[in-house]
Amino acid sequence: MWIICKKEWRQFFNNLTGYIAIAIFLLLNGLFLFVFPDTSLLDFGYASLSGFFNLCPWILLFLVPTITMRSLSDEYKAGTFELLKTWPITPAQLVWGKFLGALIIVAVALLPTVIYGISIQQLSAIGGIDVGSTIGSYIGLFLLGAVFTSVGICASSFTPNTVVAFITGAFICFLLYTGFEAISKLPVFRAGPDYYIEMFGIHFHYNSISRGVIDTRDLVYFAGIIYFFLFITQRNITKR
To answer: Which InterPro entries does the UniProt record give (predicted)?
Structure first.
């Protein structure tokens, strides 16, 4: 499994696309958080990273599918998937190796954003950022990235076309993140099942963890979604 994980890591960083994707991710966050006046944290008047944690999931919607779109699609296209089947690894080890390799890349992309928190903390005149909420939000971002990674790898397992894998992965991530919340706000569901429908969406559980309270139900939800998509991926490559 760790061999596959290293292979995924090297495959991403062996070409310029990987570096460009992470650079654009950090650049967009920096521009929105410190340059553009409508979203700049410097104009808040108080030390908070809430703007970053509201914005970052939307950028991850595009970054993570960019990372995962080649995971299995390239293996099919290049014919190396047939070679992988001769290795002494199970389909589950292949899928989890791909997942862990891509997830480490996502973590590497998120790590430099800690500088934003340090910067706001140093610039604040009184008090500072809410450390508990900030830590909880970063845990939520990591779990969100893990879910998007599992979705992206699942989408990549269905097609040898990387563009189709990217579009499919990004679309499913978008639906999971905001789709249930949008449905719950329909007039027909108000004052009834709207709360329970919203609970099916990632946004609900991400906001819950972002408050700094690590609820077991939120962790079980994220773990369940990750396992579900990786299980589909495993079944799919087993058929192949």
So the answer is: ABC-2_transporter_component, Motility-assoc_ABC_perm_GldF
DSSP letter string over 137-185?
A: HHHHHHHHHHHHHHHHHHHHTT-S-HHHHHHHHHHHHHIIIIIHHHHHT
CA dihedral over 12, 16, 21, 26, signed as positive or negative? positive
Q: What is the C-alpha to C-alpha distance for residues 31 and 214, in angstroms, rounded to an integer?
A: 30
Rounded CA separation 186/21 (Å): 36
Q: Cβ contacts of residue 210 below 8 Å, gap of 6+?
A: 53, 133, 136, 137, 140
Ordered by start, the domain boundaries in the chain are 2-239
Radius of gyration from C-alpha coordinates of the chain: 19
pLDDT in tens, 56-78: 889 899 889 988 888 888 878 87
Q: pTM of the prediction?
A: 0.88
Positions of the chain with pLDDT lower than 50, given as ranges = none
Pick the closest to residue 157 from 76, 62, 228, 61 (CA basis): 76
